[in-house]
Amino acid sequence: MLFVQKGQILVQRTIAISPSECFWEVDFFHTGTVDNFGQLFNSEQGRIQIRDVLTEDLYTAEGIQMNFNAGVIKEVYINQQEIPIRAYYHRLMKAFKGKEVSQ
């Protein structure tokens, strides 16, 4: 996933290792130079906000995986607004099952 904000770009990679494990990596790239304290503050604030959102997402993902492992959840229903996540999910399911999953 690619998040583009004014002054910075965040790249998030989730690499499936198995049906129950993945490697999750996030990199921040700053564009341009910081010329004053206000720009530095805004840059750091944006990074902290994204960090907090990603931490919440990771916590939720871990809980969902525990429910999958326990057999509680059989399917995932993804909101229509989550287009990139839905596309990624369907590609993963195709890779693991070897067939297309309806969208």
Give the helices and strands, then pairings:
Blueprint: E1 2-5, E2 8-18, E3 21-30, H1 37-70, H2 83-97
Antiparallel strand pairs: 1-2, 2-3
How would you summarize this macromolecular structure in one to three sentences?
With 103 residues, the protein is of the alpha+beta class. It has helices at 37-70, 83-97; strands at 2-5, 8-18, 21-30.
Widest β-sheet, arrangement of strands:
1-2-3
The secondary structure category is alpha+beta
Helix content: 40-55%
**For the CA atoms, what is the radius of gyration?**
17 Å
Count of helical regions: 2
Tell me the overall shape: elongated
* Count of spatially separate domains: 2
**Which range does the strand content fall in?**
15-25%
Unreliable stretches: none
How far apart lie the N and C ends? 19 Å
User: How does the major sheet shape up?
Assistant: 3 strands, antiparallel
Order of helices and strands: EEEHH
Number of strands: 3
- Mean pLDDT comes to 81
Describe the protein in words:
- This protein is α+β, with helices and mostly antiparallel strands.
- It folds into two domains: 2-72; 73-103.
- 48% of the residues lie in helices and 24% in strands.
- It has helices at 37-70, 83-97, and strands spanning 2-5, 8-18, 21-30.
- It has a three-stranded antiparallel beta sheet with strand order 1-2-3, covered by helices on one side.
- It is elongated and about 55 Å long.
- The relative contact order is 0.12.
